[in-house]
Write a structure and sequence with these properties.
The complex is a heterodimer of chains A (386) and B (345).
Chain A: H1 11-28, E1 32-36, H2 39-47, E2 58-62, H3 67-70, H4 73-83, E3 88-93, H5 117-122, E4 127-130, H6 133-142, E5 147-154, H7 156-168, E6 174-180, H8 183-189, E7 200-204, H9 205-211, E8 225-229, H10 233-249, E9 254-256, H11 268-277, E10 278-285, E11 289-298, H12 307-310, H13 312-315, H14 332-336, H15 368-375
Parallel strand pairs in A: 1-2, 1-7, 3-4, 3-5, 5-6, 7-8, 8-9
Antiparallel strand pairs in A: 10-11
Helix pairs in contact in A: 1-10, 2-15, 7-11
Chain B: H1 5-12, H2 24-38, H3 41-44, E1 58-66, E2 72-73, E3 76-77, H4 78-91, E4 96-107, H5 112-129, E5 132-141, E6 149-159, E7 175-178, H6 184-190, H7 210-219, E8 225-228, H8 233-242, E9 248-252, H9 260-269, E10 282-286, H10 291-300, E11 308-314, E12 321-324, E13 330-332
Parallel strand pairs in B: 4-5, 9-12
Antiparallel strand pairs in B: 1-6, 2-3, 4-6, 7-10, 7-11, 8-10, 9-11, 12-13
Helix pairs in contact in B: 2-5, 4-5, 7-10
Classes of the chains: A alpha/beta (386), B alpha+beta (345).
Amino acid sequence: MSYDPEVYKDPKLVLALKERIAEVARELGRPVKIMHICGTHEHEIGRYGLRDLLPESVELLAGPGCPVCVCDAEYIDRAIQLALTPGVILASFGDMLAVPGGIPLRDGRPGDVRMSLLDAKARGGDVRAVYSVFDAARLARENPDKEVVFFSVGFETTVVAVAALLKRGAPGNFSLLEANYYTPPATSMLPTLEGFDVQGFLLPGHAAAITGLKIYEHLPRLGIACASAGFEPVDVLSGVLSVLLQLKEGKPRLENTYRRVIPYEGNTLALKELFEVFELVPQRWRGIGVIPDSGFRLREAYRGYSAEERFKEVFARPLPRSEREHPKGCRCAEVTLGLVRPSECPVFGKLCTPDNPYGPCMVSHEGTCRAWYTYGMDRGRIEVEV
Amino acid sequence: MKAGKKAHVERYGSVRLSHGSGGKLTLELITEVFAATFGSEPLKELTDAAILENPGGRLAFTTDSHAIKPLFFPGGDIGRLAVAGTVNDLAVVGAKPLYLSAAFLLEEGFPLEDLVRIAESMKATADEAGVAIVCGDTKVLERGKGDGVFINTAGVGFIPPGRDLGPHRVAPGDVVLVNGTLGDHGIAVLSQREGFELTLALRSDVAPLNSLVEAVLAAAPGTKFLRDITRGGLAAVANELVLGKPFGIRIFDHQIPLHPDVVEYSEMLGIDPLLAANEGKVLVVVPKEEAEAALEAMRRHPLGKQAAIIGDIVRKPQGLAVVETAYGTRRILEMPVEELLPRIC
């Protein structure tokens, strides 16, 4: 299949979709809320100003789509603790470095400031940014006299690479701080939340390319119209249109509007390896709580690579941490669930900015607050006077 | 004892601490490598300060330090960067660059062969720009205390009478242009970093822009503002121009020229090319009636073949840089807040 990304940015197509969406929304005659569950979606929506193209009756919300934002603060604290342990190199994705965890820090900044991996680095911790788990394994080979711990944060899309590495063998001085999240159970949990008022889902294109769509089949039965969507402007708007058409017909379904990437059954080879190495366990999502079967844990045969096992003695003496999941005043929890917009948070853009993030959603480029701040989405439609 | 660049490299191989001691090796390095390469009269005389002709008019004076990894990258090296960077800082205030200084911080053990290559590249770039390197300094840092070589260049130029460029002249209705594709330098350098090492057709755009600037000023004498687009990319320059001002800037993102490698690679890494670094690009603000003339002048110049009109100055929103897409949608172009390239760790 040929794939010319420019086609999916084509202004003619985009404007035609805009017209069609407006038409269907008019025929539908009631307000509709559609939620996507992927940080990249929010980023692209901001970058291309796609909310400007939707009629007032159609609202596009950001759900829990950022692995950095939902990563439990306790994992961050453990990563910090390992980074400060002599002889340990803590390898992490760059996006995680500035995320505040649960360890209170008094360094002169205002508010309820928590320690991040960058703070640990500034205090002498050996923290390295890597692009993938393979870079971390290379770091382990290059430093045979050190223990290299990979802070394995991410959704199923990222975990497949970890499984691939471990299947093929990793260095003996390499281990994994498992902070991985499986998204489908969280998506299924959303409609059960009190006050959850969403009629359609844009399912995440990247994640669904791994998991496939079968696992989402129950959502239409709850009355939610679903469309799996890609990330270019044409993809996102096609997803929105699909949801609106389903609602207009009164027949919520599961439509794949991203067929060039998502096979219905997912990536079976990757899934096979993934579940050979990992099993599903209950997992705590930051600001959301524990969701059954939503975390990846190394199976018995691979437990030797678990940092939890290897550094039991270190973790037996945890650093003092705050009980509060998010810093005082931060509304990341509600933002993550799509219950409030970032602009409704009292610290957004004031105490909490990308250069001095207060809550996790302002740190990662996948975070909703970060995307809103970067692209000025809190301003609504930006009027220009020539 | 043989003298000259080649002999010096053969004799010592790499930089030693004594190259910075002020003694014999320092003198040899200056005469055999730097003065021999740069070839300017004031430098050959080895006086404590260069004594220069004053062409008259107001002087422009600037300085810039350069550190880059890798030192040699597709399309350039730290030497070309150090000369072009300072020349461009002078050119965009309307000055004709004349004299440069060159101060080197060398790391012990740095191969002299590479230092010669860097010096020759500086000389070639200085010739291209029509400037002379007239004074300098050398210090050596202990091994492990430097990144091979750091170069500081300061530059002096003079401003012809009657020239007045600056943000105070910018007003709503003015037109914004660039002289070519954005983000080439940032992406070309990033492609060479550890973990990527890609082979791209893309080259850094590092180049002295003074002759292009002169061509623009001749064709569009009403030109109001010039700024070289470097670190922080277009986003930084656009924001600096409007910050706290009673006007804003609107950028049409679909009119921005981009190299195909920049489009693909920045997409892959999630980098906004508008935030990526350039070293041979200039943002030009002209009154509307001179926009076509400025554009034509740039396109006739070898460094402006892909020049384009990319935006305008607007009454509102004030103090903000706004991007308008081909769909008519808009977003804010934020001032970059962090190092785009993963340098922190």
